[in-house]
Design goal:
Number of strands: 8
Helix content: 40-55%
């Protein structure tokens, strides 16, 4: 399973003090199955987790009973249900933001001939919570529910650039002594420039031939509660707005969604 950022001594002490082994086992199973779209057999789960068959069996039975995990009709394969996805989308602030943003995003995509997506912060990453597609045959998009990196994406950079002091302090404590702390420090001049301009327009850090346009959706105090990003594709016909027009229209959407 993927490893998270290195833990500091203080975080390790706290983790040991408040250990809940049964809960940890259940969360380990959910994280393992989240990486397996086809599911896993019980034997495969036991092997991957390095735990005893009986303790994994008991935990799987409880997760099935609570509808977080489904069992195949043959009874030998387990997979995640949609329950976690449904619970995540019940989060009121995100749900309200998506409800307000979706029609504006749809209108933007129709007007400029480009896709766009809405990204919300999710601890040490960001989560795509909405997406709008343009008419026609061509687009570049990212799926709803995708986790994206804060340090290597346009959306992540804008979230960091407009991060509130409390979130900065929490992230600094979690990242202390890790590679993420050094990478964040090196980014500071770039983030300062984005704060000054109020947006980012530049080459995608994941895909060639795409320019990302990212603008923050702001709280009343001027901090980012979310980010709108348009992965701008230059087409060879004239059925699209140019990149400057696209930025203006995307900033207009963000302004309508920002809290005053």
């Amino acid at each position: 399973m993927p490893k998270g950022p290195a833990k500091t001594a203080n975080s390790t002490d706290k983790d040991e003090r408040y250990r809940a082994p049964a809960l940890d086992k259940g969360l380990d199973i959910l994280e393992l199955l989240s990486e397996q779209p086809g599911g896993l057999t019980r034997a495969e789960i036991v092997k991957a987790m390095g735990r005893g068959p009986s303790e994994v069996y008991r935990m799987l039975e409880r997760l099935v009973a609570r509808d977080f995990v489904s069992r195949s009709p043959e009874g030998d394969r387990y997979a995640l249900t949609m329950k976690l996805f449904i619970l995540a989308h019940r989060h009121p602030p995100v749900r309200r933001l998506v409800a307000r943003a979706q029609p504006l995003m749809d209108a933007f995509s129709i007007a400029v001939g480009q896709s766009c997506h809405l990204v919300a912060p999710d601890r040490d990453a960001a989560l795509v919570v909405a997406h709008a597609s343009p008419p026609g045959n061509w687009e570049f998009g990212i799926r709803i529910g995708a986790h994206i990196d804060l340090l290597t994406t346009s959306s992540g950079h804008i979230l960091l650039a407009f991060q509130d002091e409390h979130s900065q302090a929490e992230a600094a404590a979690r990242w202390d002594g890790t590679d993420m702390a050094g990478a964040r420090e090196k980014l500071e001049p770039v983030l300062t420039a984005y704060r000054d301009t109020g947006h980012r327009v530049g080459p995608s850090q994941q895909m060639r031939a795409i320019d990302d346009i990212s603008v923050p959706i702001l709280s009343p105090d001027g901090f980012a509660i979310a980010v709108l990003t348009c992965p701008y594709i230059q087409r060879l016909d004239d059925k699209q707005a140019d990149i400057d027009q696209t930025l203006i229209l995307l900033k207009d959407v963000a302004a309508k969604l920002s809290l005053s």
